[in-house]
Amino acid sequence: MDTGNTFSNLGTGSQNVISSGTQNNNSGSGSQYNANTIAFHQHNQHHNANLLADLRVTDPRDDKTRIEGTKGGLLTDSYVWVLQNPDFCQWRDDKDQRLLWVKGDPGKGKTMLLCGIIDDLQATRKGKPLSYFFCQATDELLNTATAVLRGLIFMLLDQAPSLVSYIKKKYDIAGKALFQDKNAWQAMSEIFKDMLQDSNLQGVCLLVDALDECSTGLKQLLMLMTETSRSTSAKWLVSSRNWSQIEEQLRPVAQSLSLELNAESVAAAVKFYIKHEVKELAKAKKYSSQTRTSIRHYLYRHAGDTFLWAALVRQELKRVPEFEARERVKTFPPGLDTLYQQMMQQICDSTVPERCKQFLAITAVVYRPLSLNEYGSIYDLPSDIELDDSECEDSDSEDSSCDESNPDLVKSLRELASRCGSFLTIREDIVYFVHQSAKDFLMNKAYAAFDQIFPDGIAHQHHAIFSRSLEVLSKTLRRDIYELRNPGSSVEDISPPNPDPLGPVKYSCMHWIDHLQQANSADSPARGDLRDNGSVHAFLKCHYLHWLKAQSLLQGMPQAVLKMQKLQTLVRDVDWNACQQTLEGHSDGVWSVTFSPDGRQLASGSGDNTVKLWDTATGQCQQTLEGHSSLENVFEVAIQEPTGDPMGRVWEKPSFIADQFSYRKF
């Protein structure tokens, strides 16, 4: 008789196994467990944890906390008006109203409005599924349609783990590539649509902020929103600037809530915000009541119903003492762009204008917000505060010390960032633009600020970042950089040392090829970098394996493969002439050519009444075939399989009557 499965009885009593198979007979008190089932369950949990880790591009809940913290906290009175707005109430309460578009100009408080709506929905819809995502154009992890879906699905799986079944089958085959390869959008959108049909997601609310900051795949994302708002019970609430292309896509199914059309409510919210912020400022700076009143009323009159304008002025006032504040506030012009222009002029008039402009230029072109530590790797710092890497020339040396972070360096960079007007803000040592409109202003060629921070053009700035990245990587990367000693270690089991030698160069490691691509133009110095014995060639000869190992440790191997494909294209563009070889021998024009099946031979038919057979490797003519009159013209050639004999298709009459031709073997 077969023994069946193994059981463990953790109490008194007896256990009877009568026949083969899974047995559940337990007489007496105690617990009985199927060991195989336990092992399977634990494996399943581990597998699902890996799936979630690979799916996660960000946790939108953390993004919400960061955004609220960066903006000084969420004030209830700055958004509560929308909860009584008829358009919002209809979207919330009417099951047939499934898509609401909140639109408004920059700085009107759309993001904080959505943060408030999220809090209200979580409080009033307890137990019902809710997912959201905050797009951010300055961060490559947050500015694609695929990232939006990954973020939304990540939150839904956290609330309803059973939904993982919609992903598991494809994930078991593709692994992490399911979420990252060139077909990721197609795969994720199909999974998402199937998921929304699940009974666990009936009436789910999906919120996406700043659609205008979705730089890649916006059209596909909008189409998905309109499709699912018709075919499922999901409710969408999205926000963006007043973009016509977004309106065109959403108009057929969406109801809109315009902040400009609700100017009175927005103005009241801005007024409350100003009152609160001036009160906090007065407390911190110990303003007199007269100074506080004077500043508050000036902001009331000039804010133009714009939260961001008031926030920028408050930030500037924090830099000056009370005796300057009353006069200083009067210098701030109304309007965001005019305020940005004034901030830029103040930078130009500062004691370190070039340093600030260089810092802004880097921040404007990088692919994601950088930590201060990472700035140290790509910012051209003065020599007196640069890392001493004189001992790092031999990057295979285990005594290399250029991986250490430098507290003085970080301190200097923090001070420099603070001198960049109020364009930038720092949270947890990561530098962000205070608002997308700040970056838009600096990147707008219509303003003088563009020429001030990019005097040689954007491509030159990309090249500077590329060059600095390659330099610091050459000094940092080395064999067994984490000193693991065991080449078979699994990446999942590796904890970075403290300090992490790859921490300061993580961005450079991931993006040096991207910046090289952006710098590559006909008159760019990057052309020289890509040639034989250029900087790229030298780096790859010395550090290609070190770089791949670093990418693996940073869990960036899928991206590394794509980067190398990109680099291969760049090298081909530089060094591969369109004309690879010239075959000479015909005395008249060539009418037709064809390759042999194995690609080793080329046959050419010419108006000189010959067919020539060429060796493609050497370019030598192997055979010249003749055999028809001077009146005939060869217009098509072929190579006969399997013999490889050339054949010519010829006109039999000089009149070129199309139905009078034949193949002739020479």
Q: What gross morphology would you assign? A: globular
Number of domain units: 5
Mean pLDDT across all amino acids: 84
User: Uncertain regions: pLDDT < 50 for 5+ in a row?
Assistant: 1-25, 35-41, 384-404, 630-635, 648-666
List the total number of helices: 25
Structural class: alpha/beta
Rg from Cα: 33 Å
Helix content: 40-55%
Annotation, overall tally of beta strands: 18
- How large a portion of the residues is in β-strands, by DSSP E? 5-15%
- Biggest sheet layout: 5 strands, parallel
Overview of this protein structure:
With 666 residues, this protein is α/β, with parallel strands linked by helices. The chain folds into 5 domains: 7-53, no CATH class; 58-261, Rossmann fold (3-Layer(aba) Sandwich), CATH 3.40.50; 264-332, no CATH class; 353-575, no CATH class; 590-665, Thrombin, subunit H (Beta Barrel). Strand 13 and strand 14 (611-615) form a beta hairpin. Helix 11 runs parallel beside helix 13 (307-317) and helix 22 runs parallel beside helix 25. Keywords: Repeat, WD repeat. Residues 19-34 have a biased composition (Low complexity).
